[in-house]
Amino acid sequence: MAHVKTAVSLPEELYKRLDAIACERHTSRSKILAEALADYVAHLESEEITRQLHQAFITPTPEELAEDEHFLAAAKRHRRMVAEVTGDGWDASSG
């Protein structure tokens, strides 16, 4: 895999912490930053996928809402007819 150099500005305290971790682990700051950034990017991509799934499966489309309203109206009509036939006084206007 090709590598590209870039300059990154860090707060001094963070740089010192990064340097200490790199020293403890016998690795480079670049490797730690690359791994941390890869994890962060994966996290952001996962959040985006979750958002898209939520939008696709949880948030109803206008067409789905219209279909729900159609079925709800049909159910209310059916309950009114059942109440009229059976005379049980079931109030179809109560939801």
What does this structure look like?
By secondary structure, the protein is an all-alpha fold. The protein has 2 domains: 51 residues, no CATH class; 36 residues. Helices cover 72% and strands 0% of the residues. It contains 3 helices and no strands. It is rod-shaped, with a radius of gyration of 30 Å. The N and C termini lie far apart (62 Å).
Q: What profile does the largest beta sheet have?
A: none
- What is the count of helical runs? 3
The portion of residues assigned to helices is over 70%
Q: If you average the pLDDT, what whole number results?
A: 87
Q: Work out the strand percent.
A: under 5%
Rg computed from alpha carbons, rounded to a whole number of angstroms: 30 Å
Task: Report the count of strand segments.
Answer: 0
* Whole-number tally of structural domains: 2
Q: Quickly give the structural class.
A: mainly alpha
Stretches where pLDDT falls below 50 for ≥5 residues? none
Span of the ends, CA to CA: 62 Å
- Shape by Cα distribution: rod-shaped
Order of helices and strands: HHH
What would a concise description of this structure say?
Helices cover 72% and strands 0% of the residues. With 95 residues, it is mainly α.
